[in-house]
Amino acid sequence: MTSHRFHHPVFCTIVPPHLLDKLARADDPALAGPARRTLVADAAQRTRRRLTTVVGAPAVAPPPEAAADEPRRSIHDADHGRDLPGRKVRGEGEAPGQDATVNRAYNGLGATFDLFLKAYARNSIDGNGLPLVATVHYDESYGNAFWDGEQMVFGDGDGEIFLDFTLPVDVIGHELAHGVTQYTANLTYFGQPGALNESVSDVFGSLIKQYTLDQTATEADWLIGAGLLAERVSGVALRSMKAPGTAYDDDVLGKDPQPATMDEYVRTGRDNGGVHINSGIPNHAFYLLATELGGRAWERAGQIWYDVLTGGELQVDASFAEFARLTVAAADTRYGEGEEQEALRKAWSQVGVPLAVAG
After folding, report:
1. What radius of gyration, in Å, describes the C-alpha atoms of the chain?
2. For residues 216-241, average pLDDT
3. 160, 276, 322, 340: which is the annotated catalytic residue?
4. Burial tier of 23 (Cβ tally within 10 Å: 0-12, 13-18, 19+)
5. What does the H/E/C string look like for 234-282?
């Protein structure tokens, strides 16, 4: 594996900037205030991430040894401040406490660890037993959750638009999957590779939810962040893999801008070239593949995506077409000629992504 895999991590949030920008311009100060505060906090974290890239991350003491099949979780409470990781409130193996948010974060980290270990024989995010650290109650009315390259952070939401960010297990899985991408393909966070980076997190976030609920591909709702939006919002989730562009249609948030096919591909300089928007296209391709194959989506469909992510051939600047070609190659390697390849070709064709020629 070449050295280009080891670029420093980026700051990845579950709520895209275009949604927060829209909220920040709302007439109602109860909506605009928390959104502006969230944008300021996110900007500060991005600056911190860039500075860490320049000066290097602080040295961290090695964690105590644990069995390869056990997670090493620690949950911290920021007490509505921004200092990370904050006050430690629960460690690995400790009994649940009174704070439901702490318990959900602990369980969500465990569910993510379990899927990667049991489905793909991957020991934690880095494949080498990386301790899983999360901070809850970050800032005041913070409307986001993020992976900062080292740990997970969850806001409580404003109660008006967003509820507690630990509520949907796929949000937890999504952000931790950014860590898996960071330690494997390290896809550049801009344009099509950035949209693939986001899509991979949506895919594994959804698979973690399905694994936890023991759902088949046809039983799953394929929504990202269901249960996160407050009652006043006209919407069901942040994104839909089954029907991109339909997750919400709200007076304040506007309409879900995700395209399902290349015909509606959005060209924009915002949101790192639309990484949270155009991710709808590979998301929909995965949904089509998983439902065509049937059964548990983390098995064959998820295995193909995992093989591409970890196979060493996926370039940091890969296009949708290059990623699509690698999925077909990975299916051939693992399953040979058969229904997996046929379903892949059909799925990518339906979303308008051609299979790139190797070269």
Report:
1. 19
2. 98
3. 276
4. buried
5. CECCCEECCCCCCCEEECCCEECCCCCCHHHCCCCCCHHHHCCCCCHHH
Catalytic residue among 175, 198, 322, 340: 175
The domain covering 191-350 belongs, at the CATH homologous superfamily level, to Neutral Protease Domain 2 (1.10.390.10)
- At 336-346, the pLDDT tens digits run 999 999 999 99
Residue type, 210: Q
Helices 320-335, 191-213: crossing angle, 10 deg rounding: 40
Place of tokens 């439901």: 100
More confident of the two residues 47 and 226: 226
Indicate yes or no: pTM above 0.90. yes
pLDDT at 62: 44
Q: How many residues are present in the chain? A: 359
Q: Report the alpha-carbon distance of residue 122 to residue 141 in Å, rounded.
A: 35
First-residue to last-residue Cα distance in the chain = 18
The pLDDT of residue 55 = 39
Per-domain residue ranges for the chain?
3-183, 191-350
pLDDT at 75 over 90: yes
The reply to whether 175 belongs to the active site is: yes
pLDDT above 90 covers a percentage of the chain that reads 87
pLDDT average, residue stretch 75-90: 97
Residue 250 carries which side chain, given as an amino acid letter?
Answer: D
User: Which DSSP category does 350 fall into?
Assistant: H
Q: Is 7 a catalytic residue?
A: no
Q: Exposed, middle or buried by CB within 10 Å (0-12, 13-18, 19+), for 106?
A: buried
Residues 3-183, CATH architecture: Roll (3.10)
C-alpha of 310 from chain center: 17
Provide DSSP, 81-146: S--SS-EEEEETTPPP-S-HHHHHHHHHHHHHHHHHHHHH---STTSS---EEEEES-TTT---EE
Angle at 46 between CA 269 and CA 74, to 5 degrees: 130
